[in-house]
Predict the structure.
Amino acid sequence: MPAYETILTERRGDVLVITINRPDRLNAAPPAMFDEIGAALVGPGDARAVLLTGAGRAFCSGADVVGGALGSENPGDATFLALTEHYNPMMETLAGLGLPVVSAVRGPAAGIGCSLALAADFCVASDTAYFLQAFVNIGLVPDGGASWMLPRLIGRARAAEMMMLGERIPATRALEWGMIHKVVSDDALDAEAMALATRLAAGPTIALGLIRQGLQYGFTCDYNAAMEREAEHQRRARGTRDSMEGGTAFLEKRKPNFKGE
């Protein structure tokens, strides 16, 4: 696996594990970190699922604001460039990924770290986790796609509460709101998230990738367009070896053995 400065990558079976690795900074994310995450996602090899997690007691406490834009003569322009040239391209890569993604969150998932955690298909949080849109507290606005993502996950009123009041949302409330998949004890988080990622990695990879693309597309299109996209995706999925295996296993009354092909 390539060596990175701000993240760790490893293969655990068919799962690519990406660990944000700046625990001394609560995994605050400089632009280069998102470049490295994007590079790891672009070249996952034959991995069939991705697990995103953070080292230490945080998932990601947001963008690293020490130096950078704060030290620039034109902080607005510097922030714009950081978003459009580093953070946003990685989020777009993640959205278009043809693999299922699980995030494992303990401690803070704040600012763009919140967007990153919630961009996964399944967000598993420990009972120490919280989600925070802290931008308003320092006179800024949400980024990382939060203004698109949160209203669709939890509705406009709750999204406004998060964005305009800038208060922590504990994991249990995030679960009640339908923002995340599951809350577990802190000592069970790693095993639970890995078990879910492993289960997804054993599934029909092409179909799962098409499902996540269909979900994304469904947010932006009308009913007829969604059905047309479904038909195109179904045509592609029907031609895979996993589809043949799934049908054969059904007829033979056994569990399918998917290969991601």
Observations:
- Residues 75-95 form the longest helix (21 residues).
- The chain has a mean pLDDT of 94.
